[in-house]
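_Per-residue structure_
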Amino acid sequence: MDNKSISTWLGQFPMFKSCTQDELEQLANLLLFKKVERKDALFYEGEPCDIIYFVKKGQVKVYKTTEDGREQIVNILTAGDMLPHVGLFGDSAYPATAEALDDTEVYFLYVKPFTTFISHNPSISIKLLQEMDGKIREIQARLSNVLNKDMREKILSVLLSLARSKGTQTDSGYQVDLELTHQDIADMVGTTRETASRILGQLKREGLIRMENHVISIKE
């Protein structure tokens, strides 16, 4: 995309809606473009948080590594999402690892130029904090649901939460296009792939979910 197209695209992010066209073009000048292949990492948990990413195309999973070496997926990000949502300021480290679920395209910029930019645009700071707060609340609600339900309910709850936030509403529920494997779903609820596969099979037979060509349909 050319600079004008990039600035228009940035204007669709909630935190940048109050920016003037000139401010958006200034921000677009700071952005760099990168293609990330499936299974490649954008960053790793514990590394210095010095780059901010904006997903243009594709899907990114964000996960933490447990003490026993397992992945615990905390979020799935798609086109129009920013990451990370915490650790941007104060010489912090990335709080989790981000890995492309499929071939992904991102724009990115370095934290220091970005902080300089928002220091001259205080309204963006407020929008940025609101965006972070909303994302963190969404993740906390999803994890809370996972903790308080049995495994069948956990899987349904996680899929429905993702479909609501990333997909579209249908006559019977929600539909979302996500490149999720049974292992990914297992990692989101803290179970084994075998258990996740068995429960997903049950849910399919009962007509509560349908998974075809990475499109997940869920009855509400």
